[in-house]
């Protein structure tokens, strides 16, 4: 149980295009999902908190118009990197909290490797 | 912002040896969690220890928490080559609204 999937696992795009990454909780409902980015050999940096049915809350320094987040259902959150540039190349990871669980455990997706040429 | 500081940054050991890594943090927490990440993959949750707990075991893993020193340790006993990964501690601060704060991680290499 508690599986989180991400799609795609890897994407290469040209500079200026937009890329959508999906995060799904497969066997539980998640009112809250989190989006992180991770540069090589570094830790995870929280980008934003995705709340089902409401606007996402972004961490300081993260452009909300650049990284669009939509949490349309209890099992799906999407992150769209708009007008991507090479500096957006990174590993993007989502996580989800089980709404029906009393624990604070977050379950992480396998990540999406974005390369912007 | 990163709250947790981990040491060592890297650890190289042989199979069968124990691996110990430490994590320090700065604010009050509800719990502290340890995760493993294999290269290029997502994070796997290993263990959660609550602020009122001092020690917890799960298989070959032993986690301690000292809230007075704001530190935690993760011990992997009888390590295996498959334990090669990066290990991250993540704190759940009391005022974080559910947001985990990750440490810098310890890269562990276990050689056969």
Query: Structural class of the secondary elements of chain B?
Result: mainly beta
Overall structural class of chain A, as computed from helix and strand content, comes to mainly beta
N→C terminal distance of chain B: 37 Å
Secondary structure: number of strands of chain B:
11
Indicate the mean pLDDT of chain A: 92
Note the main sheet of chain B: 6 strands, mixed
Instruction: Characterize the quaternary organization of these chains.
Output: heterodimer
State the shape of chain B.
globular
Q: What portion of the residues of chain A fall into strands of 2 or more residues?
A: over 45%
Helix content of chain B: under 10%
User: Which pair of chains has the greatest number of interface residues, and how are they split between the two chains?
Assistant: A-B, 25 and 24 residues
On the 0 to 100 scale, the average pLDDT of chain B is 91
Proportion in β-strands of chain B: over 45%
Rg of chain B to the nearest angstrom?
13 Å
Which term fits the overall shape of chain A? globular
Outline the structure in words.
The complex is a heterodimer of chains A (117) and B (112). With 117 residues, chain A is mainly β. Chain A is built from no helices and eleven strands. Chain A has strands at residues 4-7, 10-13, 19-25, 32-38, 44-51, 57-58, 67-73, 76-81, 90-97, 106-108, 112-116. The model of chain A has no long low-confidence stretch (mean pLDDT 92). Chain B contains no helices and eleven strands. In chain B, the strands form two sheets. In chain B, strands 2, 4, 5, 9, 10 and 11 form a six-stranded mixed sheet that branches. A five-stranded antiparallel sheet of chain B has the order 1-3-8-7-6, with no helix packed on it. Chain B is globular, with a radius of gyration of 13 Å. The mean pLDDT of chain B is 91.
């Amino acid at each position: 149980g508690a599986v989180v999937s991400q799609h795609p696992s890897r994407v290469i795009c040209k500079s200026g295009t937009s890329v959508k990454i999906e995060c799904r909780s497969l066997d539980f409902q998640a009112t809250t999902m989190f989006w992180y980015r991770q540069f090589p050999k570094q830790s995870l940096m929280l980008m934003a908190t995705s709340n089902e049915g409401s606007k996402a809350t972004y961490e300081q320094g993260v452009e909300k118009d650049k990284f669009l987040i939509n949490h349309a259902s209890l099992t799906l959150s999407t992150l769209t990197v708009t007008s991507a540039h090479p500096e957006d190349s990174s590993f993007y990871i989502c996580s989800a909290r089980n709404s029906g669980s009393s624990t604070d455990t977050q379950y992480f997706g396998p990540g999406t490797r974005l390369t912007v040429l | 912002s990163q709250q947790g500081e981990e040491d060592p940054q890297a650890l190289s050991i042989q199979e069968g040896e124990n691996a110990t890594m430490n994590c320090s943090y700065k604010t009050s927490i509800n719990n502290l969690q340890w995760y493993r990440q294999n290269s290029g993959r997502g994070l796997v949750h290993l263990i959660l220890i609550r602020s009122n707990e001092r020690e917890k075991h799960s298989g070959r893993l032993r986690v301690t928490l000292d809230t007075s020193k704001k530190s935690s340790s993760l011990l992997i006993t009888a390590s295996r080559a498959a334990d090669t990964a990066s290990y991250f501690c993540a704190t759940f601060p009391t005022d974080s609204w559910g947001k985990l704060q990750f440490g810098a991680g310890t890269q562990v290499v276990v050689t056969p």
